[in-house]
Design brief:
Elements: H1 2-7, H2 10-17, H3 25-39, H4 48-63, E1 82-86, H5 88-93, E2 95-102, E3 105-111, E4 120-123, E5 126-132, E6 138-141, E7 144-152, H6 153-158, E8 160-166, E9 169-175, H7 177-182, E10 184-187, E11 203-210, H8 217-230
Parallel strand pairs: 1-5, 7-11
Antiparallel strand pairs: 2-3, 4-5, 6-7, 8-9, 10-11
Helix pairs in contact: 2-4, 3-4
Amino acid sequence: MEYAARAMTLEDARRALGVAALATPGEVRRAFREAAKRAHPDRPGGGAEAFRKVVSAYQRLNGGDDALLPAPEPAPVASEPAALAITPQVALDGGEVEHELEPGRRIRITLPPGLRSGDKVGVGEERLRVTISADPDLRVRGDDLWMTVKIPSRTLAAGGRIAIDTPLGRRIVWITRKVSQRGLLRIAGQGLPPRGRHKRGHLFLRLAPEVGPAQSGARALLDRFAAAWAA
């Protein structure tokens, strides 16, 4: 270590820490702490060799050519909590999930309803960071739930009342002309439940036409009559 610090040029040392030629001792110390965090072997992209180079650079700038001062101990790097992947439905309802703490060691965890991505849950001495996986039928955006539902084309065109199966059960909704044009319907208060600092979310339905067999003239006439009656 001492030989490496002596062999390093001042220019190399400044480049390693990212400081200017006229940097003050305080600026050098702060630059060392930041560089040491990035190069720490416990950090992604860090390593023993990169960390030794940072320490040598600090010693070179702090001690000159003759006197090598010991570098301060870097602060311990807190490891990121392991990820706990859950489905949107578990985020909504809570329930039991399996998680592999380490190879060959699986546990079952009971989760509360209303978890969001980034929330932390404790399992013994472990802390896990929640991530909500993508689902083709149901997605979580912040506090809200988003899903795509198929609506008969005639209902989208004429409007009317329709039953839709949602994650919270069957709901009766009205398809108005405005809703049909937007292709989006919001059901207030039917998203993720409130939890801690999180507020109650909403349910957003993307309306997609359901392609079916060609309509008969009589059926089209009946649908127009039903739409007029509903309006």
